[in-house]
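Weekly modeling sync, notes
Attendees: S.R. (lead), two postdocs, one rotation student

Agenda item 3: backlog of single-chain predictions. S.R. asked that every request posted to the team notebook include the full sequence so nobody has to chase files. The rotation student volunteered to paste the first one in as an example of the format we agreed on. Action items at the bottom.

Example entry:
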Amino acid sequence: MRIVIAGASGLIGTHMSATFRDAGHVVVSLVRREPASATEVRWNPAAGELDPKALAGADAVVNLSGAGIGDRPWTRRRIDELFSSRVDSTRTLTRAMRQLDSPPPVFISQSGSGYYGDAGNTVLRENAPKGAGTLARICGEWEAAAATAPPGVRVVVPRTAVVLSRSGGALGRLLPLIRLGVGGPLGNGRQYWPWITLPDVSAAFLFLLESPLSGPVNLCAPEDADVNALVAALAKALHRPAGLRVPAPVLRLVMRDLADELLLASQRMEPALLSSAGFTWQHPTLAHAAQWVAGRE
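Predicted structure, as returned to the notebook:
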């Protein structure tokens, strides 16, 4: 397959591109700079600029574009950037597809678990309603933009959970503290964090390229876990203590709205569609995932 990827330079995109190539697929990356090879095509999503020819003949388009949610404080300007970096890039891709006589038959456009807002202990399958808050609004507009793909294109919007990796990503700041033995749960730790390992994210996208699934798909491991369990499992795999809890008021003082939406919100997601479609996880349990993160698998 010839797969065009937007957002290929990030943590997920880099790993996914390698996974696709290892599976024998040709990967073309959309870049904002001058192309460095024949497998790169320049675009400017902020200005809506993409030559439709870049997508001609592609078997699938994968959209991972988006500024990092927790990289910077949520000023009004940053929130605008979080919206525009996702919605504008998605609309640029669908607009280019609509200009083709034969658009790519598959469009996989990233979304996130933030779609569900703070849902407490409610089990969230793909038909659960959209929640409240900034992240829910971002994901809602992101998914709506993906739905503007041409008729006949199979559109998949993976609502991706917290991605566990060995460096960077959602655990980029927490994991080094746990390695040093000075990490711990956030808030009361009873909020559910849906999670999935980086290899399973790439494997799931590879699976979605050829499966008949469409629409929202919860991309998370089949075993749910609250923050207490997640931190404890990582600490155990790293042979470190993890008793230094950070109270919610401290998190709110330091991170403001970002704390409530990114760290203290609870989403008990269930990968109902992936499970029923027969996807096999490399790391289906938290114990497996923690061992992989620790490099002990």
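Discussion: group reviewed the output briefly. DSSP finds ten helices and twelve strands in the chain.
Action items: rotation student to repeat for the remaining queue; S.R. to check formatting next week.
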